[in-house]
Amino acid sequence: MKTIKDSVHDHIRIDGVARDLLDTPAVQRLRNIRQLGTVSLVYPSANHTRFEHSLGVYHLACEALDHLNVEGKRAERVHAAALLHDVGHGPFSHNLEPITHRRTGRYHDDVHDLLADGAVGDVLREHDLEPSAVADLVAGEGRFGQLVSGELDVDRMDYLVRDAHHTGVPYGTIDHGRLVRELTFADGELVLDEGNVQTAESLLVARALMNPAVYSHSVARIGKAMLRRASERLLDSPETDVDAARLQRMDDHDLIAALRSCPETSEFSRRLDHRDLYKRAVWAEIDDVPGGIIEADHEALLEFEREIADDAGIDPECVILDVPSRPSMKESTTSVVVNGDIRRLEQQSPLVEALRASQYSQWRLGVYSPPEMRDQVGRSAVETLGLDIDGALVSEVRDGLDATLDQFVD
Amino acid sequence: MKTIKDSVHDHIRIDGVARDLLDTPAVQRLRNIRQLGTVSLVYPSANHTRFEHSLGVYHLACEALDHLNVEGKRAERVHAAALLHDVGHGPFSHNLEPITHRRTGRYHDDVHDLLADGAVGDVLREHDLEPSAVADLVAGEGRFGQLVSGELDVDRMDYLVRDAHHTGVPYGTIDHGRLVRELTFADGELVLDEGNVQTAESLLVARALMNPAVYSHSVARIGKAMLRRASERLLDSPETDVDAARLQRMDDHDLIAALRSCPETSEFSRRLDHRDLYKRAVWAEIDDVPGGIIEADHEALLEFEREIADDAGIDPECVILDVPSRPSMKESTTSVVVNGDIRRLEQQSPLVEALRASQYSQWRLGVYSPPEMRDQVGRSAVETLGLDIDGALVSEVRDGLDATLDQFVD
Amino acid sequence: MKTIKDSVHDHIRIDGVARDLLDTPAVQRLRNIRQLGTVSLVYPSANHTRFEHSLGVYHLACEALDHLNVEGKRAERVHAAALLHDVGHGPFSHNLEPITHRRTGRYHDDVHDLLADGAVGDVLREHDLEPSAVADLVAGEGRFGQLVSGELDVDRMDYLVRDAHHTGVPYGTIDHGRLVRELTFADGELVLDEGNVQTAESLLVARALMNPAVYSHSVARIGKAMLRRASERLLDSPETDVDAARLQRMDDHDLIAALRSCPETSEFSRRLDHRDLYKRAVWAEIDDVPGGIIEADHEALLEFEREIADDAGIDPECVILDVPSRPSMKESTTSVVVNGDIRRLEQQSPLVEALRASQYSQWRLGVYSPPEMRDQVGRSAVETLGLDIDGALVSEVRDGLDATLDQFVD
Amino acid sequence: MKTIKDSVHDHIRIDGVARDLLDTPAVQRLRNIRQLGTVSLVYPSANHTRFEHSLGVYHLACEALDHLNVEGKRAERVHAAALLHDVGHGPFSHNLEPITHRRTGRYHDDVHDLLADGAVGDVLREHDLEPSAVADLVAGEGRFGQLVSGELDVDRMDYLVRDAHHTGVPYGTIDHGRLVRELTFADGELVLDEGNVQTAESLLVARALMNPAVYSHSVARIGKAMLRRASERLLDSPETDVDAARLQRMDDHDLIAALRSCPETSEFSRRLDHRDLYKRAVWAEIDDVPGGIIEADHEALLEFEREIADDAGIDPECVILDVPSRPSMKESTTSVVVNGDIRRLEQQSPLVEALRASQYSQWRLGVYSPPEMRDQVGRSAVETLGLDIDGALVSEVRDGLDATLDQFVD
């Protein structure tokens, strides 16, 4: 039995298979991957890592299983999955996932190979656990997969509280103790027990409030977009032999060092290092953006970027088009027992629809460029993309928003 | 300059008129009035008082005025109003306000007499402040009255954070530092500056989540209903000469001692002291309650109580009917600047309507009685009040809810 | 299984005999006894009660027993003792203990009668627990009594953290999780396991720093001295029939109401209510006080008070002489395993001797009086008690100290 | 005016010269230097950086200057120095300072060149501040230099609280609000005002308790020793052209990448990455170590290492000798006003001497090696260094200590 001191859960006790997995290179590597990627450009204290988060998820999984009276191999399998659930992350966590997914076809929670190989596979087999069964749990499959990756998973419970603690933004402070203790199974489904509609709402609300303040803060998005652009250039550079699979296995140090030393990426790298970021040239609401733009594929977006640059008469490297996918809300299908029946939260709570509408109204398409080119890039983007904003408005809104949003930008 | 250590704001510096007001009996009296009344029957750590809350409100008012560059007499007047805003409270804060209001016609924020008299009046006049002007601010009147009592007042900012801290329920943890700094005046109105729709939402959400978990927790409501019943009996007792005006000036100690020693109230008092509370015989949703019941006046409700008891063949003292007023949501008209215009939050945020719907769905009519009489009281109440629930359902729901809701009931 | 939300330990789960004891009048009564008595005159947030503290002690006892693998009846007995350990407290906790002890011969931890009688005795016997065996544990007797009342008891672990949380003074913030987990038995003695000299020191230091800042703050001492004086007058008043045994069973409300209504105590009561306290006329270090004064018995001190008043030509009620006993340091004999041997902390840590010296240097004899009589009382006390301070110095030191110490005095 | 959200001080407002310095590469670079170096190998949440610490020091400096009524250029100079005080740090903060100092003759607080050059120099001169005057403050020179670097500097106040927050070890939680407000100047010296002996003691105690638990934790020391060894090899490697000056200007990413890619250091790097650390072969108390060893210079220690390896018949790379300098206690000369006189804390408080003795007793010489070579290395080291421990004892103590000390080792 080992005890680890954690800034969120205080003492975490770790034992059995988890104890042995802790010392594997795959888990230790998570020490060098920041949980929130470029969010630390906005909130300077947000330097926590996937390692401590993984310990926290393991801790909450243990508490949930204790409460559910699950023991033996079945519990150990979940312990392993909880600790290992993020080993598939590349550098800067989710920030580069679209790139690596596009090139490798794999998301971070597809860890069948990673768990079968090397020290992790050895440890699992020593404890009589089938790596593929653990990987299935990480992918959210099966009864207990819901606890690791699902609407009521302990992953979310840990990250909301941890991200709130480290950014200083209080909105994520949920009552995880209550959540974990109200979990139960009904018809094979993980649900919140009778009397917890509000408990489920609080989880949803925490996520909804953290989103614009932290996860999708405009400056974090700009940083992420620049990092992605740089990483694409790195992958395409003839000077290096980094491919997507190798990128995926890097940690933050590797990637930063590679970006600094590669000639095609050193300027982006310098900007990120010095926080000399691009600024918003356009920041458009969903209703002002043609549907075709939102649905456009990667190639089409690249083409738009080139056109905007072309039209503005500047280097294409000076335009980044950032189009998030349409808002979704996974938590809306959270199951809660109400008067003995299992209900989806969205059937039960008027908040779900409202938060979905909020998300919709907070969605923004961004076009970013060096500050001195904002005006021409903005005009050109509005025209190229067919945005429903007249030129004057663009810069006005932009400045107003900058004044406000930069407030928390260090 | 005096510094006071506070468990929420750490160090509170107090100076000028506030420093002198601190030592008046009217302010010191607030030490003996619990902030949340019978909520401590549910959350045993919730023993904080109106005194520390008043210091916190004063502290946030100072911060807001600093930020708004308000100085001199105008600022001092607000300082005084902030510190004095709760001196009108009777014992157990809001718990008994309906009784005292019914008999004196006065709410706790009508403090014109209290501020003109005695030591408080003397201190205010020594500092060249007109007591009636300060009382106006307490009542929310005038430009700066909005800061003391309004949709964006510092009162709410303090109590949400303080109640969260002392109950242990995290939902009230708002970012008061940001709220205070984003306040501004537009057209004479206190508003949140550009870019703060979400800041306003977070305040609304915190209030909405604290409500069922804390302020309207069923056990706190039962305790409050029993305390009210006991206080009515005390006022009507021939053994004492306590009238509503005197009740209003008591503190918690006075009232508890009076209830313990008065023969007509000693049994209620014993029950409250031993937490041997009545239980819910009925707990009905708003759609199942005839409109006439919700709108009924005090006399009509007393008549209903008597009828229920009569019908059940028991002592009327064993039935308490608890009908909250229809849900309202003061914060919905919070003003926020959006693209240069002042907007009401309800126009801007889909959350307002959803939270209103939530409140509506959380509304409950309660009928309480000693546990051993629940069945007959429940049946009789359903019939007498014309509730749309059949007898069987009543006890089923009741038990289910009890099991769940009593979880946090110590 | 019941879950209670606590502001310090978050969720406390309570089961078995403790669950049943919770609802007894003796335990519910603790809701109305402030943990720190008159300390709330200095730290306005310090309104926590013996009830929540008792829950906390129960919680830590459960954790410790889990860790020590103690189960069954033996564990239940300790659970009961932990929850009941403070039922013997009178109003204002320790504040009046010298009075009641002098008149009843009983300290607050002598609870054999209280546990045998009434609902508590019934519950204990229903759970097959012998009340006297539980009372022995409360008194610190036997192997597990050390856990309830001893150098390493969970009582201290809870109150240090809780008092820090509620006063806002950070010094008491110990690592109780580590302490509880490092407990072990060696030769039947409760000790800290190998490698914990520093853990033991941290407990000692926390206590030593909280002492002058909180527990012995001069204003808390003055309030306590006035409360004691008032309580003595209450006991001696011909107008009431309160005796020491009855005083001991009162709660804070009872005592405050009694002091307010009794003619002999109403003036002290008014002063305490309005925080219109006596001030220090003398504040003398231990080396400046003749040994005879420190060792003097209660009668002798009364005689000194009368003499000082007489000499100053004022009402004896205007002089209070406050002589603490010589400093002691219970924690110095904490046992720690060092290289396999059990050692007393004082043998092992140079801090013990230093903290003892600190305590010695912080010891103060106080003479208190209404502010306007301080000079004559001070002069008269120096002479009567034979203090080694010349008149001029008395008032100088006094004023300097007042300026400083009153800083945290609200 | 910019506002930055900080996990420790909540909102930090930054203005004037500090606002402009924030965007310089020298300050932004601090984002990539972990505050506690290899301590994160023990406490996985300890990933905070010199950047957020520098903001915190700036924040406390502003509060202290406000309190001291210092304004204008004099204040701005201190603001700049506070924000810039750590720009001289190399990767892993203090961890490599002995190496770079030995080779460049410069400590991290010698920043005259760094402040005169580049963007920092430009910003300072634009604000009419002399870079060398700011650098003098960083070096602790002059009246206000004491506030930036001295016994009562705001540097320590920030790091104690911040390190406690991020490690989860509560001992560093001082009352910085009180400390800052009690600062005053007496005879040109920064002192704590009357009545603050205990305040000064609390600072000293916090430092003394954090030391063994955090700063000198054995595993953090082993990690540091391995990092130093690797860095020495890097500097000496013919494969790279990194010299000490360049090392000093690296950040953590640069160094880690360099160590990973250099053939001479890749094995150490792998061990650090996988937390596959050396273990203690010897862990000797100060009284068991000949004075000559403690005073030995760098060359002599290298010679001892070689001898131990030779004697044990193993590769010299497998032995690391770690000899801390003799304990010192800077805070012992903290000045406090007592009865109007300035006194050194060590004259006034018996704790100083005790804490010094504690430090002395906690001092340890370490010899580290791969786990499988511990026995032979231990025996050989005892003999070579002339330590006063017999062979058997070495491994016994070692194992006991490991069991205990590894408890908090993740």
From TrEMBL, chains A, B, C, D:
<feature type="domain" description="HD/PDEase">
    <location>
        <begin position="46"/>
        <end position="169"/>
    </location>
</feature>
<dbReference type="InterPro" id="IPR045509">
    <property type="entry name" value="HD_assoc_2"/>
</dbReference>
<dbReference type="GO" id="GO:0008832">
    <property type="term" value="F:dGTPase activity"/>
</dbReference>
<dbReference type="Pfam" id="PF01966">
    <property type="entry name" value="HD"/>
</dbReference>
<dbReference type="InterPro" id="IPR003607">
    <property type="entry name" value="HD/PDEase_dom"/>
</dbReference>
<dbReference type="GO" id="GO:0006203">
    <property type="term" value="P:dGTP catabolic process"/>
</dbReference>
<dbReference type="InterPro" id="IPR050135">
    <property type="entry name" value="dGTPase-like"/>
</dbReference>
<protein>
    <submittedName>
        <fullName>HD domain-containing protein</fullName>
    </submittedName>
</protein>
<dbReference type="Pfam" id="PF19276">
    <property type="entry name" value="HD_assoc_2"/>
</dbReference>
<dbReference type="InterPro" id="IPR006674">
    <property type="entry name" value="HD_domain"/>
</dbReference>
